[in-house]
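F.,

This is the one I mentioned.
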């Protein structure tokens, strides 16, 4: 049970004792106190005073925050409380609080993890730290779940992602990442609104999966008694709006792809897609560069960012390299291999990459690209002129019908954006959908696109020459915050069920007593095995085990 842990039981008892003292451990109508940053700024003058005791008892200020540290020294105590701006020290003692309150409440019932409200005046300690001298201290919310042991903190990634609230409490930099993410999303929205794009909302449940090559999630619509697919991309609906006369539209929202998970893939992810009538993919590349310039300027970021081992130069204009040229000049693939189907299959096999022998040359070139080129694209680089058979929604080049007027943007070896001139010929689109359906039958590929006859019907009414692009917001945030797992920039990433997680952790136990409660364990100093945090409880269990 969730409350069986002995430490939790002790905390529950303390909550009950607060009630016995006439104190509600979960009061309402609490007003947020002065932010800690404002406290430090507003009362900085106290540190400059020339008096022996640096304080200002004429000032009264209230602070609110979570207790992160307590040091009790008999009749007095120091504590560190944390709010959104950071840590701040408070001091309270027996004589300044109401009679009996220090000994019966503050000293015994307040502990690390509790949210409190402290009221008093500013003063400076002998060590020179600006501190709040409390005349009143109240509980705001009693935490019955103990925080992880202070020294080792919260390092288990599974727990961090599953219990993001705890991750944010223990690792302040995590909260900074998500504040940055929020700012980036807001700036992207503002940029497109300032460029006269209209934000729209399209369905999240589709009758036909479309808009990208991906395996969909399937659900059932009870009222209609039909299956529906969580959207893998909003593309086909946004282009329907272009047919209807909306010449510049964008949508920031979730997409769902029922595929594997790794450092850059989560089944549920955020992107922006935008469609721009009477513009082409060259215009999109320029607009993307302007977007980067805008984000960097607004966030006051240096154009050279650090991403792991890489120093990435994000100055514009970005490099632009045609797809097949990239295979030979960046991936060092022999030119005769890059343009010959049989040689490509043999070359991939030589390098340990097994592929379906029924794949077309375009799909084989894509395999070559993934294997030999993508990882080498460190600075922002537009790869252009993709094979037409891996670009089922892109317009063919007028100069070369085998390639699409399309680009992808890469940074640090990862795809960030995908854009192209939209195919607006309904006959060509029908034939490409049909080719995808035939490929699905030939190869069994569950990621190929389905035939969408209503979209063909929409194109039949005439769509203006249009360019469209999608940008992966999660990956962009990864780059700008130097995070190397997509799960570090998604608040609540997809996780395996806890039951399976427990099976995987069956070997986690105290070396001495066999205790398997992770909340009561800490890793050994050299990282091999675990020991109980509470040595006395461990010894007691060890003795009981010997009986």
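My design for it:
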């Amino acid at each position: 049970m969730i409350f069986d842990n002995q430490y939790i039981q002790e905390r529950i008892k303390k909550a009950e004792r607060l009630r016995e003292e006439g104190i509600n451990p979960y009061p309402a109508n609490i007003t947020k106190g002065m932010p800690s940053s404002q406290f430090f700024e507003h009362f900085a003058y106290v540190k400059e005073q020339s008096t022996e005791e640096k304080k200002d008892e004429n000032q009264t200020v209230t602070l609110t925050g979570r207790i992160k540290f307590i040091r009790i020294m008999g009749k007095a105590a120091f504590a560190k409380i944390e709010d959104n701006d950071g840590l701040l020290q408070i001091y309270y003692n027996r004589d300044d609080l109401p009679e009996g309150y220090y000994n019966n409440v503050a000293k015994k019932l307040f502990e690390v993890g509790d949210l409190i409200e402290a009221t008093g005046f500013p003063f400076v300690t002998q060590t020179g730290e600006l501190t709040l001298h409390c005349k009143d201290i109240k509980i705001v919310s009693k935490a019955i779940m103990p925080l992880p042991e202070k020294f080792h903190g919260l390092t288990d990634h599974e727990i961090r992602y599953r219990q993001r609230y705890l991750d944010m409490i223990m690792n302040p930099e995590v909260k900074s990442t998500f504040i940055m993410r929020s700012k980036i999303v807001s700036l992207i929205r503002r940029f497109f609104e300032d460029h006269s794009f209209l934000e729209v909302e399209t369905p999240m449940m589709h009758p036909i999966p479309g808009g990208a090559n991906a395996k969909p999630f399937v659900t059932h619509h009870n009222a209609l008694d039909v299956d529906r697919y969580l959207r893998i991309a909003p593309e086909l609906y946004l282009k329907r709006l272009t047919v209807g006369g909306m010449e510049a539209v964008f949508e920031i929202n979730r997409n769902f792809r029922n595929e594997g998970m790794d450092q850059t893939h989560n089944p549920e992810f955020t992107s922006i897609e935008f469609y721009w009538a009477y513009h082409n993919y060259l215009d999109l590349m320029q607009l993307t560069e302007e977007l980067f310039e805008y984000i960097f300027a607004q966030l006051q970021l240096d154009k050279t960012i650090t991403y792991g081992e890489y120093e990435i130069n994000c100055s514009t204009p970005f490099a632009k390299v045609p797809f097949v040229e990239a295979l030979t000049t960046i991936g060092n693939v022999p030119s005769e291999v890059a343009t010959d189907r049989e040689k490509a299959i043999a070359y991939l096999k030589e390098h340990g990459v097994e592929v379906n022998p029924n794949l077309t040359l375009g799909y084989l070139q894509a395999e070559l690209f993934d294997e030999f080129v993508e990882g080498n694209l460190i600075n922002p680089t537009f790869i252009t002129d993709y094979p037409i058979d891996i670009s089922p929604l892109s317009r063919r080049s007028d100069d070369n019908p085998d390639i699409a007027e399309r680009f992808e943007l890469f940074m640090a070896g990862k795809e960030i954006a995908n854009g192209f001139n939209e195919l607006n010929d309904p006959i060509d689109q029908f034939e490409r959908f049909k080719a995808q359906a035939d490929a699905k039958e030939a190869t069994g590929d569950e990621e190929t696109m389905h035939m969408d006859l209503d979209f063909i019907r929409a194109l039949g009414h005439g769509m203006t020459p249009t360019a469209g692009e999608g940008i992966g917001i999660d990956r962009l945030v990864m780059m700008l915050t130097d995070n190397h797992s997509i799960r570090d920039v998604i608040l609540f990433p997809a996780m395996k069920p806890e039951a399976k997680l427990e099976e995987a952790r069956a070997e986690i136990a105290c070396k001495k007593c066999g205790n398997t409660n992770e909340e009561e364990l800490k890793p050994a100093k050299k990282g091999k095995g675990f020991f109980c945090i509470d040595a006395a409880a461990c010894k007691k269990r060890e003795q009981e085990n010997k009986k």
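The longest strand covers residues 61-73.

Talk soon.
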